C-alpha cells in the first residue's frame, strides 16, 4: 500500500571540529532538512521474483511513500551508536563475478598494529599537480617510483598488486564488520567514502616516495573537471611503454575524446565537444555547489551492525560515471576501472581519486555555513587499516583524514570554471501544467520496474520559505528503497517538473541528478542491492520559480538501449 504524508523530525546537524571552518555553536538554531521523500515498499511489498525484462534492461524497483522533516538525512535517531571497522583477522576471499578467476585480495598478516600519527609538520607541503600540467621531472619520478613498486615481490604489502588489492578487499566483501561476523563491510555509498580513499592514497603516495628516497614526491590528479586540457585521459597514462599505462581501458575514450562526467554507457547520444563541456561543468556545479550539507555531499551514516545508506553527490556523479567511462567494454565486467575488484589495477585510478579527494577540499571552502564535516563520533572514530612505507600495519580513523595540510600535502591551484555554471531552466512551467501532463502517473501501482519513464506528483513539506529558513534547512528529495542487480552497471536520471517536450540535459535546472552504480558482487549471489538517492531541491525550486507550489512532479528516466559513445 502506498501513501504520502507529512511529518517533522528536527535533529541537530553535525558539524566540523576544525577551527579553520565555520561550525555550530550552542547559540545557533539546530539546522534541519526538509525531505521530499519518495520512499519504497515495505517488506511485504517485495515480489519473490524479478519482473521479466529484456536482456539489456536493468530493473529498478521503486515505490512512493512519505514526506518528513529530518536533519542529517539518513541518520536514524534510534540506531545503535557504534563506529565501523573491518575485521582484518577474518579477511576471506572477495566476492567476485562467477566467471572471474578466484583471487585472494587479503593483505599479508601482521601480528602488530600501530595507531596512525600525523607526519611532522612540513614548512612547505607537498603539491599534488594536475596531471596535464606536470613537468618532465615529476613525470619521470612517478614512472621510476611505480616501476619499482611493480618490481616488488607480490607478497610485499607495498607492491603494486597488494596496493590494488586494497580496493578489492574493502569493496568486494572480503571483510566483515568487526563485532558483526555476518555483516559485510563496505566503504562505498556512505560517509566513509571520502575518508577511506583519502587515506588509501596517502599511504600509496608515501610508499612510492620512499621507493625513490624522495620525501617530496606526490601523485598527480586527473583534472577531469577542467575544460582546459583536463577533460581527457592525461597523456602520462596513455604511453604504452610507461608503467602508468593499463591496456584495459575503453578504446573509444582515448584522447582527444572528452570525458562524460554524467556518462551512461548505454546512451546512444554522442555530444559535440562544446555541449559535452557545458554538460560537464553543469554536472560539477550540481554535485559540489548545490550539495551544500555534509549528508548530501559526503554521504549518509554507516554505523556498526548496519548497512551503507545513500552515497554522497560526488560519489554518485561524477566519480562513478568516470569509472564506467574508462572501463574497457571489451572485458566482461568493464575491467579494469569499470568494476570494483580490478579498478585499482589501473594507475589512472589513483589520479582519478586524487581529484575526488580534491573536491572534498573545494567543497569545504565554498560559501554556506552548512558546508562542514560531521562531528558525529561514530564517523570520527570509524577506522581502516593500511600498510605504510616501512611495512607497518597502521590503524587510521576518520578524524585522522580531515585536514590535508596536516597530512602534508595540498593541491595545485587551477581554474574551476564550473563554480558559476548554475544550470538554467529549459522551460519553466506552472505546476498546474505539470500536473495535467503527468496526472496519470499518480495511479500507478508500486513497487514497479523502472525500465521506462515514471512520473508522480509529490507533495512538498513546506512552501514559500524565507531566505533565513532556506539557509537553515535544505529541502531534499529522497528516492528510497532502490533495488537493483549489483553485478550490472546501472544509471537512471531524475527530472523535476519536466514538460517532456524537449530533451533535458545537465545544463538544465529540471535535471535534478542521477543514480549510478559500479558493478560488484555480493557475498549472497543473486541478492539484489538496496540503496537510495538524495537530491538538493532548494536552489532548483528557486530557479524553476516553484517555491510557492505545494507539489512537484518527479520523473525517473531509465536509459537502457545499447550503444557506444
TrEMBL record:
Cu cation B binds at residues 319, 323, 353. One of its GO terms (molecular function) is catechol oxidase activity. Disulfide bonds join 91-106, 105-168. GO terms for biological process: pigment biosynthetic process. Residues 188-205, 346-357 form the Tyrosinase copper-binding domain. Keywords: Copper, Disulfide bond, Metal-binding, Oxidoreductase, Thioether bond. The keyword Oxidoreductase applies. It comes from the Eukaryota. InterPro entries: Di-copper_centre_dom_sf, Polyphenol_oxidase, Polyphenol_oxidase_C, Polyphenol_oxidase_cen, Tyrosinase/Hemocyanin, Tyrosinase_Cu-bd. The keyword Cell division does not apply. Its cofactor is Cu(2+). Binds 2 copper ions per subunit. Cu cation A binds at residues 167, 188, 197. Pfam families: PPO1_DWL, PPO1_KFDV, Tyrosinase. Residues 1-26 are annotated as: Disordered. There is a cross-link at residues 171-188 (2'-(S-cysteinyl)-histidine (Cys-His)). Belongs to the tyrosinase family. This is Polyphenol oxidase. It comes from Vigna unguiculata. The lineage of its organism: Eukaryota, Viridiplantae, Streptophyta, Embryophyta, Tracheophyta.
Amino acid at each position: 500500500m502506498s501513501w504520502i504524508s507529512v511529518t517533522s523530525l528536527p535533529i541537530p546537524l553535525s558539524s566540523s571540529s576544525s577551527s579553520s571552518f565555520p561550525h555550530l555553536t550552542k547559540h545557533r538554531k539546530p539546522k534541519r532538512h526538509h525531505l521530499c521523500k519518495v520512499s519504497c515498499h515495505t517488506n511485504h511489498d517485495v515480489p519473490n521474483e524479478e519482473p521479466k525484462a529484456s536482456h539489456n534492461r536493468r530493473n529498478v524497483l521503486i515505490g512512493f511513500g512519505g514526506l518528513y522533516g529530518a536533519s542529517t538525512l539518513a541518520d536514524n535517531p534510534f540506531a545503535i551508536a557504534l563506529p565501523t571497522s573491518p575485521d582484518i583477522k577474518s579477511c576471506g576471499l572477495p566476492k567476485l563475478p562467477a566467471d572471474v578467476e578466484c583471487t585472494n585480495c587479503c593483505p599479508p598478516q601482521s601480528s602488530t598494529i600501530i595507531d596512525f600519527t600525523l607526519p611532522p609538520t612540513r614548512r612547505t607541503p607537498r603539491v599534488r599537480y594536475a596531471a596535464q600540467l606536470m613537468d618532465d621531472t615529476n613525470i619521470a619520478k612517478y614512472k621510476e617510483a611505480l616501476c619499482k613498486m611493480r618490481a616488488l615481490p607480490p607478497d610485499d604489502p607495498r607492491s603494486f598488486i597488494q596496493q590494488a588489492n586494497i580496493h578489492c578487499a574493502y569493496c568486494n566483501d572480503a571483510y566483515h564488520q568487526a563485532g558483526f561476523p555476518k555483516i559485510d563491510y563496505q566503504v562505498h555509498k556512505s560517509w566513509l567514502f571520502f575518508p577511506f580513499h583519502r587515506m588509501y592514497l596517502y599511504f600509496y603516495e608515501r610508499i612510492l616516495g620512499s621507493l625513490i628516497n624522495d620525501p617530496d614526491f606526490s601523485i598527480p590528479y586527473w583534472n577531469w573537471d577542467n575544460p582546459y586540457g583536463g577533460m581527457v585521459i592525461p597523456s602520462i597514462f596513455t604511453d604504452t611503454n610507461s608503467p602508468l599505462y593499463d591496456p584495459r581501458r575503453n578504446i573509444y575514450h582515448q584522447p582527444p575524446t572528452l570525458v562524460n562526467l554524467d556518462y551512461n554507457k548505454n546512451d546512444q547520444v554522442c555530444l559535440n565537444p562544446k555541449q559535452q563541456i557545458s554538460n560537464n561543468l553543469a554536472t560539477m556545479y550540481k554535485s559540489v555547489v548545490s550539495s551544500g550539507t555534509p549528508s548530501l555531499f559526503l554521504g549518509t551514516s554507516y554505523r556498526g551492525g548496519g548497512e551503507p545508506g545513500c552515497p554522497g553527490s560526488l560519489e554518485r556523479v561524477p566519480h562513478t560515471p568516470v569509472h564506467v567511462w574508462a572501463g574497457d567494454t571489451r572485458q566482461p565486467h568493464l575491467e579494469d576501472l569499470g568494476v570494483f575488484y580490478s579498478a585499482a589495477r589501473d594507475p589512472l585510478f589513483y589520479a582519478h581519486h586524487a581529484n575526488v579527494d580534491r573536491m572534498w577540499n573545494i567543497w569545504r571552502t565554498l560559501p554556506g555555513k552548512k558546508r562542514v564535516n560531521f562531528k558525529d563520533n561514530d564517523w570520527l572514530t570509524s577506522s581502516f587499516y593500511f600498510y605504510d612505507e616501512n611495512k607497518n600495519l597502521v590503524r587510521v580513523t576518520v578524524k585522522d583524514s580531515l585536514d590535508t595540510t596536516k597530512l602534508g600535502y595540498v593541491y595545485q591551484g587551477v581554474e574551476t570554471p564550473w563554480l558559476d555554471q548554475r544550470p538554467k531552466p529549459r522551460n519553466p512551467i506552472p505546476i498546474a501544467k505539470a500536473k495535467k501532463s503527468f496526472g496519470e502517473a499518480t495511479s500507478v501501482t508500486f513497487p514497479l520496474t523502472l525500465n521506462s519513464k515514471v512520473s508522480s506528483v509529490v507533495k512538498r513539506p513546506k512552501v514559500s520559505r524565507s531566505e533565513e529558513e532556506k539557509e537553515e534547512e535544505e529541502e531534499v528529495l529522497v528516492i528510497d528503497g532502490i533495488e537493483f542487480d549489483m553485478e550490472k552497471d546501472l544509471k537512471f536520471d531524475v527530472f523535476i517538473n519536466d514538460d517532456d517536450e524537449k530533451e533535458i540535459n545537465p545544463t538544465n535546472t529540471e535535471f535534478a541528478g542521477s543514480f549510478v552504480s559500479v558493478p560488484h558482487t555480493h557475498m549472497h549471489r543473486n541478492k539484489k542491492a538496496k540503496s537510495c538517492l538524495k537530491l538538493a531541491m532548494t536552489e532548483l525550486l528557486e530557479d524553476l520559480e516553484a517555491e510557492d507550489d505545494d507539489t512537484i512532479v518527479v520523473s525517473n528516466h531509465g536509459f537502457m538501449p545499447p550503444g557506444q559513445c
